[in-house]
From TrEMBL:
One of the Pfam families matching this protein, by short name: PRD
Organism: Paenibacillus forsythiae
Gene3D superfamilies: CAT RNA-binding domain, PRD domain
UniProt domain PRD: residue ranges: 64-169, 170-280
Protein's UniProt name: Beta-glucoside operon transcriptional antiterminator
Keywords, ordered alphabetically: Activator, Repeat, RNA-binding, Transcription, Transcription regulation
Organism placement in taxonomy: Bacteria, Bacillati, Bacillota, Bacilli, Bacillales
Amino acid sequence: MKIKKILNNNAVVVHDHGEEKIVMGSGIAFQKGKNDIVDPYRIEKVFIMDDPDQYGHLQEMLRTLPEEEIAVSESIISFAENELSVTFKKHIHIALTDHLSFALKRLSKGMVIQNTLLQEIRILYPREFQIGLHAKKIIREKLNIEIPDDEVGYIAMHIHTAWVNAGASGSGADKAALIRDIAEGVERTAGVAMDRGSATYERLVNQLENILRSDESGKLCNELAPEIVRIAKERYHTAYEQAKWVAAQVEEDYDYTFADSQLVLIAMEINRMDTRLKNMVN
């Protein structure tokens, strides 16, 4: 591999058998110049130009962003790949590094963007959230910057998206937001305000995640038998009507249609919340 262009001390553009690539590795460009041969033992990552736009973006990012920020991003990605036993697709190297760069600039100016899905992310994606917490530690140790948990949640979602794109099952921020909005609807109809960090809220989020879960063909994983649905509609009539109201509030926003089976299960959650409130009063 011959060096065509040096992007920074740890990244170079090379010619390899007539193909242009970006090669990364610690100190890979140290005391090197154009047309020098890359030390193969220093190569850690190779990026091929399969998407010209992303390839160009990656080059510009490696050339202009602080090397220590890029190194931190790569450390987080490598840790996540090891923890999840997966190799992410190349886009994560752009997405996460871009995000971190902007986030660190905001934090340096005292600007914190609230992550309104933080608790849902923590509950729904615990492995990714733990990786986000490790990222917080890396950033503190390498850059001497303390990021808030709001940013931990954003990093966790980047890792979750990369994991899904690499073949893991899952969804993403839309599902977390949908669950949050259903949970808020359940609260309103039941007249209960839950602490987002409580075990009660965690249980509700997990229940709603189970209610929404489907297989690859789109079939619900927890679909109820028609006779059970019929009986439940009668037994929990008021709660079922409330569940229909909750569904109507979110269906258009998320282009999602609830099945009768799901409405019954949501109704049972509303009824449970309502019963809990009455027990507290009595």
